[in-house]
Amino acid sequence: MTNHASRRAFLKRSSMLAMAGAAAPWALNLAAMSEAAASTATDYKALVCVFLYGGNDYGNTLVPTDSARYAAYAGMRPSLAYTQDQLAATVLTPGVALAGGAQYAIAPELAPLLPLFNAGKMGVMLNVGTLVQPTTKAQYTAGSVLLPPRLFSHNDQQSVWQSSSPEGATSGWGGRMGDLFESGNGNAVFTCVNVSGNAVYLSGKTATQYQVSTNGPVALNGVAKPLFGSAACSTALQNLVTASSSNIFENEYTRITARSLSAGGTLANALAGGPAIDTPFPAPGTNNLADQLKLVARMISTADAVGAKRQVFFVSMGGFDTHSGLATVHPGLLAAVAQALSAFYAATQELGVANQVTTFTASDFGRTLTADDGSDHGWGSMHFMLGGAVKGGRYYGTPPVVANGGPDDVGQGRLLPSTSVDQYAATMGTWLGISDSDLLTVLPNLGNWDASQRNLGFV
Questions:
Q1: Terminus-to-terminus CA distance in the chain, angstroms?
Q2: What is the pLDDT of residues 156-165, one digit of tens each?
Q3: What residues make up the domain containing 64?
């Protein structure tokens, strides 16, 4: 900046925020430069992304149980495979059988999700992953088609999953969905809500993700309670950090701070006046994913109070980069996911909004099926969709051939996805009410699939 006085004032404000213990719940989005077409809605719907950071091991999440495919699975991970006796209680019985007699079980630790599948409230997405266009193994091997950038890289594939672009992307498809709906919400602030920090998934071109903690809005300590024991100091601080400025960067910073303070007060009041949730969740602090999803349920219960018609939420859990100790680490991770998802679905039932909330899992990538103590970075994976509107109790997509070097394997059991993230996302976008033409903007690779293949029909 050439204006040194403005720079000093900006730095002064920043240091005051630090001294006051500030935690600004807004992710600054300097890419918000385009106009979004408004979509209107009279009902309420919410989309909840559950992101499993590190790359979930698909092989020990959804396990083939028909004899030929189980034998191939067990042969590729002799020290890590579940036994068929361990899987007997969680074998899935779909309403529509898979071709060729293919059968699966969910991991024993995912047993709390079995009633949801059996009740038709949870579906299973087979072999979904990042793609630029439909791709065969021959095309992959020949390098004759565009492939997702920087395959097998954590940061880049997390970003491609969430945004269709590698690390450095400025907007994600959840945020771009939010762009279309924020003007139809009574308070645009609560369109895109992140309960786990910051993720490109919820950054839009115009929509900015609102970040909250598992307890609710993140307070600016010096304003939320007397600074240095003085209410006058708190008022002075609030005036300082929200005053407008002629400097573009300074003004944007204070505008966002002012908006977050206002939103925090609105949300705190709405949560205080919202209904109690009696559904039993794991004890606070014992399952962070469950804590995040309980806050999402509480926020959904306040949708009328804050004027929200469409909301997109993001929660996450880490620890899935299981290069070693998979047999001891992964079961605990899956148990936490199952407890959190089952409690959350029950809470939406209690609130009477189960049909209006669709939850789905996502992850960096799947992992190698060939494994010893742990598994390596992969590509395609298996995921779950749940909610009252989900046409569950069945599989979607194509079951991959389980074979080392087989037609769906690009090496060591790394699955070449048969279904793209864009198709997965477009199906949920259609349910939210996004038009076919707007989906092509939200999901830039979607146009590479025939129109008849874009909606997978699970919701």
A1: 50
A2: 999 999 999 9
A3: 27-219+286-453
